[in-house]
Amino acid sequence: MRGMVGHFLRLPEGRAFLVQVPGTSQSALDDAQVAELLNWMVAAVSRSEVPPDFVPYTGEEVTRWRAHRLNDAAATRMAIVERLRSMGYVVD
Ligand code: HEM
Questions:
Q1: Contacts for 29-34: CB closer than 8 Å, 24+ residues apart
Q2: For the segment 33-47, what is each residue's pLDDT rounded down to a tens digit?
Q3: pLDDT tens string 49-85
Q4: Residue list, ligand 1 pocket, CB within 6 Å
Q5: CA neighbours within 13 Å on the CB side: how many for 77?
Q6: Which residues contact 2 (CB under 8 A, 6 or more apart)?
Q7: Domain extent listing, the chain
Q8: pTM of the predicted structure, to 2 decimals
Q9: Is-contact 39 56, C-beta < 8 A?
Q10: Average pLDDT over residues 6-29
């Protein structure tokens, strides 16, 4: 995730993906803890890619996204990566 995961925050669906990816959504953390962890994570590993208008996650937002499971995490990720690429942001 280092040096790239912050780009996901440029799209609403990318922002949701970081919550909905199985490791996050199925963790034992509660929603407020997930918000805190993701806010820390994006700054810790990808500060330069976090968009300047980034609004930190809140527990309420995590609750909303977490209620909807991803049917296909890989396909969802690929669609987000393609969209970012078309905007000029390269994510492997
Ligand atoms: C709260 C804990 C966790 C957080 C916040 C987290 C976060 C993430 C995020 C944001 C991604 C997507 C990165 C990308 O697509 O570039 C990811 C992917 C992944 N994580 Fe985690 N993760 C957590 C726990 C775990 C655990 C416990 C495991 C393994 C037992 C795991 C295994 C994976 C794997 C294999 C992927 C890549 C495949 C996929 O997208 O499903 N994660 N994780």
A1: 30/59, 31/59, 31/60, 31/62, 31/63, 31/66, 32/58, 32/59, 32/62, 34/59, 34/62, 34/66
A2: 999 999 999 999 999
A3: 999 999 999 999 999 999 999 999 999 999 999 999 9
A4: 1, 5, 18, 21-24, 27, 29, 37, 73, 77
A5: 12
A6: 45, 46
A7: 5-86
A8: 0.93
A9: yes
A10: 98
Tokens representing 76 are 């969802």
Q: What is the DSSP letter of 26?
A: T
Q: Which amino acid is at 13?
A: E
What's the one-letter identity of residue 11? L
pLDDT level of residue 92 (50, 70, 90 thresholds) = confident
**Distance between Cα 48 and ligand 1 center (Å):** 21
